[in-house]
Structure formats: C-alpha cells, structure tokens
From TrEMBL:
<dbReference type="InterPro" id="IPR015914">
    <property type="entry name" value="PAPs_N"/>
</dbReference>
<feature type="domain" description="Purple acid phosphatase N-terminal">
    <location>
        <begin position="36"/>
        <end position="113"/>
    </location>
</feature>
<protein>
    <recommendedName>
        <fullName>Purple acid phosphatase N-terminal domain-containing protein</fullName>
    </recommendedName>
</protein>
<dbReference type="GO" id="GO:0046872">
    <property type="term" value="F:metal ion binding"/>
</dbReference>
<dbReference type="InterPro" id="IPR008963">
    <property type="entry name" value="Purple_acid_Pase-like_N"/>
</dbReference>
<dbReference type="Pfam" id="PF16656">
    <property type="entry name" value="Pur_ac_phosph_N"/>
</dbReference>
<dbReference type="InterPro" id="IPR003961">
    <property type="entry name" value="FN3_dom"/>
</dbReference>
<dbReference type="GO" id="GO:0003993">
    <property type="term" value="F:acid phosphatase activity"/>
</dbReference>
Length: 120
C-alpha cells in the first residue's frame, strides 16, 4: 500500500521535474563586454549577467584561433577576467561567456595592448 502511494506521488512529480530541466535557461548578458585596466601586458574583460554563472574568456591573435583560455568557476553576475603575460603593442581577439552558454564573439571584440615603455 505504501509503495503504491509513493509511486503515485512520483508519477505526478516527474513531469514537473522534466519541465524544470527542459526550460533551464543560462543567464543572459545584460551589459558588456567592456575593457578595463589595459596595460602593455594585461587587460581585464568585464561583463554582467542577469543571473549567476561562471566566467570564461578565450583569446588569441586571430579571431578564428582563440588559443588562450581563462576560466573562473565561481557563480557570479559581475564578471571580471584578467588576461596577463600578453605581448606589448599586440592586437588580441576574444570571446566571452560561461560554460553553460554559447560564447559571445565577433570581429569587433578585440583590444591592443599598450606599447612597451622606454626606461630612462
């Protein structure tokens, strides 16, 4: 008798559980990307989402060859990823987002690091 009641309850709950899984939508980007703290060998790429998500940035010298990757597994809405050990005076392309969503990328997403400063 107890098993029959439990099974009936489970049969009613399962469709709701499946709907929750089917309609889980990754957070949307609501602001960004934008660049902060650009130097000769580093940059911070920033964006904001409407819900918590991890952070991921891919970068490289060509838009179709983003060989560098930085990940942050913290669930955040304000995302700040710093790329370091970059070459001075070099143009880099990047894409950004989270592991649960398609990375945002296009030909306008690039930056050029500052020129190396001469020491006097």
């Amino acid at each position: 008798m107890q098993n029959d009641l439990t099974q009936k309850k489970m049969n009613k709950l399962l469709p709701v559980a499946y709907l929750c899984i089917l309609f889980a939508v990754p957070p949307r980007i609501v602001k960004g990307p934008y660049i902060q703290n650009l130097t000769e060998n580093s940059v911070t790429i920033c964006w904001h989402t409407d819900g918590p998500a991890n952070s991921r940035v891919l970068y490289g010298l060509r838009m179709n060859q983003l060989n560098g990757a930085i990940f942050n597994n913290q669930q955040l809405t304000d995302h700040y990823i710093t790329l370091s050990n970059l070459e001075p005076g070099t143009r880099y392309f990047y894409s950004f987002g989270s592991s649960g969503a398609r990375l945002q990328a296009d030909s306008t997403q690039h930056f050029t690091t500052g020129l190396k400063k001469n020491k006097k």
